[in-house]
Design brief:
This protein is about 35% helix and about 30% strand. It has four helices and eight strands, in the order E-E-E-E-H-H-E-E-E-E-H-H. It has an eight-stranded antiparallel β-sheet with strand order 4-3-2-1-5-6-7-8. A hairpin with a 2-residue loop joins strand 2 and strand 3. The relative contact order is 0.16.
C-alpha cells in the first residue's frame, strides 16, 4: 500500500477582527483538503463528499493544541501590541513500509516559533521568545508525552479510519 498522511493546519487570532474568524482549522488527507472549521460558521464543513459519510462517526480535532495558544498567545501579544497570529501545523504519516511519522510545529506571526521532537520529547525553539514557552512545556512531561501519543497513535487511528471512505469513493468513480 502507498504512504498516506493526515495533517491539520490551525490559525488563531487573539480576537475576531474585520470579518476574519478568530480561529480556522483545515484538515488534509494525502495533501487534499477534506474538511474545515472556522469560528464564524461554528461547525465542521466537509470539503469532499465522502467526508460527509465519515463525519457521521467523529471528526478528530486535537483540542489539546488549543492549550498552547490559551497559555502563551496572550503573553506574546502583551509583549508586542497589534494583531498577531498563532499557527499550528501537525500531522502523521503511515509509510509504505508500515513505519509511522509525525510532526508538530507552531508558528507566530507567520514565522517558525517552536516545534516538537517526538523522539527526544523535547521542544526546539526557532525564535528567542520561544525559550520561555519551551521551558514551561518541558516542565510538564504530560504535555510532551501527550503530543507523542497523538502523533504516533491517535492521529494514525483517524488516518486509518478516513482512508476507507476515500477508497470507496474512488472505487465508485
Amino acid at each position: 500500500p502507498p504512504s498516506h498522511s493526515l495533517s491539520y493546519f490551525y490559525l488563531k487570532l487573539p480576537e475576531s477582527s474585520q470579518g476574519l474568524p478568530q480561529f480556522f482549522i483545515k484538515v488534509h488527507l494525502d495533501d487534499h483538503p477534506i474538511f474545515r472549521f472556522e469560528s464564524l460558521i461554528g461547525k465542521m464543513e466537509p470539503l469532499v463528499p465522502w467526508m460527509e459519510e465519515a463525519g457521521k462517526e467523529k471528526f478528530l480535532i486535537p483540542e489539546w493544541i488549543f492549550r498552547a495558544d490559551q497559555d502563551n498567545l496572550p503573553k506574546l501579544d502583551h509583549q508586542a501590541g497589534g494583531l498577531h497570529t498563532w499557527q499550528v501545523n501537525l500531522g502523521c504519516e503511515l509509510r509504505e513500509d508500515g513505519s509511522k511519522g509525525g510532526f508538530l510545529h507552531y508558528g507566530y506571526d507567520g514565522m517558525d516559533f517552536i516545534s516538537f521532537d517526538k523522539e527526544t520529547l523535547r521542544w526546539v525553539t526557532a525564535q528567542p521568545q520561544a525559550q520561555k514557552v519551551k521551558e514551561e512545556w518541558e516542565e510538564d512531561p504530560r504535555w510532551s508525552q501527550g503530543s507523542k501519543v497523538f502523533l504516533e497513535e491517535t492521529c494514525i487511528v483517524f488516518l486509518q479510519r478516513y482512508l476507507p471512505y476515500k477508497k470507496a469513493t474512488l472505487e465508485k468513480i
